[in-house]
Amino acid sequence: MSLSASLSSAVSGLTAQSAALSAISENIANSSTTGYKTKETSFEALVSASMKSSAAAGGVTTSMSRAMSVQGTISTSATETNLAINGSGYFIVADNTSGATSDLAYTRNGSFSTDASGYLVNSEGYYLQGYPTDEDGNVIGGGVSGLETINLSNLTSPAEATSTVSVSAILPAEAEVGDTFTSTASVVDSLGATNIVDQTWTKTDTNTWTLTTGNPYSATTGEETGTASATTITITFDTSGLPATISPDPADVTFSFTNGAADATVEMDLGEIGSSSGVTQSDSGGNDPSLTVNSISNDGIVAGSLTSVAINDGGQVEATFSNGLTKVIYQVPVATFANSEGLTQVSGTTFKSTNLSGSATINLSGVGASGSIVASALEGSTTDTATEFNKMIVAQQAYSAASQVVGSVKDMFDTLISVVR
To answer: What is the pLDDT of residues 236-261, one digit of tens each?
Structure first.
C-alpha cells in the first residue's frame, strides 16, 4: 500500500470515528428524552480499488440506523393525557391541525397535553390524531381517511329530558283513610331546565293508595312552568306490604311546559309487583303516621360543560362534564409498519413512512400487531449511558490511533521530500 493510500485509510477512520462519536453524543444527550430511539453506527470496510493491487487503498465507511424495535422503560405519569405503547406501533400525529394524509407522522413520544385551542399536542408540537366516536362511544370510520386531529374545545353535554322518575318510599300502614302525604320529585325538560313536581299520596282504602302529581314549577324561581296531566295512579298492597297492583301500568304522567320545552311523558316507576325495591307499605312505628322517602330520582340530565379529559388504557379519550356525565369522544389508534427500521426521521422522535418502511397499518390498541396503549404513562429513552460510555472510549482510542497513522505518514512524506532535495 502506498503512503497516499495509507493516509486515505487513516482519514476515513478519523471520519468514521467522528460520526460514531457524534451518534454517541446524541444518544447521551437524549438519555432522558421521551420516546427517543438510540442511534446506532455501523462500520463497513471500504475499498477504492481492486484488492488485487498492492497499492489498493482500504478504509472504512459508516451507516446510521436507529433501534426502532427496542422499547424503552414505561413509567407512570401524573398527567392523564400522557400515553405510552407497550409493544409495537406508533402514535399517529401531524405537524398542523388539518391532519391531511401528507402531513401524517409517527412517534412513540406520548407526552400529550391540551393546548390553548383544545388540541392534544406532544412536547415536539405534533398534534395527536384519532377516530371520532358516536353517542355510544363506538368508533366512526377507520383507516387513514377516518382520522381527525383530536380537539377538546367547545365540548358540551346536551340536556336529556326525563323519561322515568323512580320512587322508593314507605307509606304508613296505620294512616286513616283520607290521610294525605307529600313528596317532591324533579323533572328535567328538553331544554335542560330542572322542574319540581309535588307528589300527593292519599290513602283511599285499606291497603290502597293513590298518587297524583302537581304542576311543575321552576327549581330556581319557584314559578309554575307548565301543567301535569290529571292522572291518578292507584297502588294496592298485599298483607306483607308489597305492591299487589299498580294502575295504570305503565304509570305515565304527561307534562306540558310553557318555557318552549317539548311535552314529556314521564313514567312514575313505583317498583315491581311483589318487590320491596320501590314503594311499600309498613307501620311507621309512631303516634303520628309519616311517609318515609328512601330515594326519588330521575334519568334526566341537565346540560353540562367540560370539566376534565382523560385517556384510559386502550386509548379511549373520555370527557367528563359538570353534570357528572362521562363520554368517550375519540379513540386513539396505533400504527404499525412491515419494516419500522425504514422510517425516516423528521424531528427528534418523530418519523415519516418511506418505501422501505411500507405504508402504515392502523388498528385499535392491542388489535393485530398493534401494541397496547397505556394510560397516564410515558416511554423512556432507549439510551443506556453505560453502553454509550463504553462506545465512546472505543471511538476515542480508534480516533487517536488513526491520527497517529496520519502523523506517521506525514513524517514519512517529510523524509521522502528531504531525500529528493
So the answer is: 999 999 999 999 989 999 999 999 99
CB atoms within 10 A of CB 150: 27
Cis peptide before 243 (omega within 30 of 0): no
| Structural domains for the chain | 3-70+382-420 (no CATH), 80-154+332-379 (no CATH), 164-298 (2.60.98.20)
Tell me: the pLDDT tens digits for 389-416?
998 999 899 888 878 887 877 777 777 7
pTM for this entry: 0.75
Nearest Cα neighbor of 269 from 238, 303, 219, 235 is 235
